[in-house]
Design goal:
- The chain is α/β, with parallel strands linked by helices.
- The chain is about 20% helix and about 30% strand.
- The strands form eight sheets. A six-stranded mixed β-sheet has the order 7-4-6-5-9-8, with no helix packed on it. It has a six-stranded mixed β-sheet with strand order 16-13-17-21-20-18, with helices on both faces. It has a five-stranded mixed β-barrel with strand order 22-25-24-26-28.
- The two termini are about 30 Å apart.
- Bound molecules: adenosine monophosphate and magnesium ion.
- The site of adenosine monophosphate has 19 residues, from loops.
Amino acid sequence: MSIESCVIYEKKPLLSVKEAQERIYAALSPLTQSECVPLKDALGRTLAQTVYATINLPFTRNSAMDGYAFCSKGLDSEMPFTLTQIGVIFAGNPFHGELKAGECVRIFTGGVVPDGADSIVMQEQVSADNVTIHFPAGIQFGKHIRQIGEDVRAGEPLCLAHKTLSAIDLGFLASAGIEFVNVIRKLNIAYFSTGDELIGLGDTLRVGKIYDSNRYSLHGLLQHPSYNVFDGGVITDDYDLLKQTLQQASEKFDVVITTGGASVGDADHIKTVLEACGDVNFWKIAMKPGKPLAFGKIGDCYFFGLPGNPVAVTTTFDIILKPALLYLTSAHIKQPLVLSATCTTPLKKSRGRQEFQRGILTQTPQGALEVATSGHQGSHIFSSASTANCYIILDENVTSVTCGDQVSVLLC
Ligand code: AMP
Ligand code: MG
């Protein structure tokens, strides 16, 4: 055990990723206020109340095929038979006549099945001689009719509260005639970069300066229909300025996110600012990349102080922030799918923190999942994070992985 890890274990063990997640969920109160929006504006939003059907779906019996509708009563399915076509039913144009024994109607998909008909036969199975329709032996009766309410009956739920509305949900609700829905209001989020070294795109690079990239990553990561996002720019490493800016932001936003300054350096003021103007829930976790991660509250505003290193930003966002922000929107949270894959490259790791190494997941022609490292794992290394398509999750006590070992993988 290294001297550093002795200190970690003996003085104050870092919170595990799971413990940090549990503390975050325990501290968050999901939004409850809702707003009524037109259906088309509801994509990706959280449904505030369960929406119930006021009609049966399907509303009427209708045909699932292009074919012929008839009543099977008195017919023998083992024998060929002949019926007389007395009409044609297109979708949208119901048939108003009466269907008697010995008769059939030509019907197209979606056409209303006339009273009395109990069977539809596909047009490919019959031969037509003007209005005389020949049905072969072996026809199955009772088929190809979509029944009233077989999808959803009037009074039953269409979509449950807390569902994140998908494209098929918009279609589903539209099919039931729902024009407007109540969704949870948007979460107002502000994000800032911190650091004296940061310059903006378009500025001239000088020694000691770097382009602020974290705000661009966060811009991408925070694209969500349930978020109103404000880019607050860069705050220099000035305690008073940081305090004043974060205090002001906390009065306007539900969530404030910063990157950088969350560690223990002399210019890292995030923790002390949070202590001074709010409450620190925790500020370090046993995660790599991403050890310096502060979480707390300033007034009613939730505060997340992410690390400065760019890959630590995207990783802590994916693992910790993304589910937490979605939880705040009152959305039902689905557990991410953790896959098991064979590791095809050796991996190194030190004991003590759960690592989320960047990897490339592939599938063999036989369907087996294989994962390889995407390269250099430094938390400042963009290139290997950019080519990665997954995280390889290595638990706190793991120290190495050899080729052929099974590892847990999370798609990103
Ligand atoms: P810090 O946590 O502030 O000590 O930052 C850790 C590392 O991340 C340093 O190398 C910083 O220069 C870098 N860093 C901090 N903020 C950003 C940013 N917005 N864009 C790119 N790199 C950053
Ligand atoms: Mg800094």
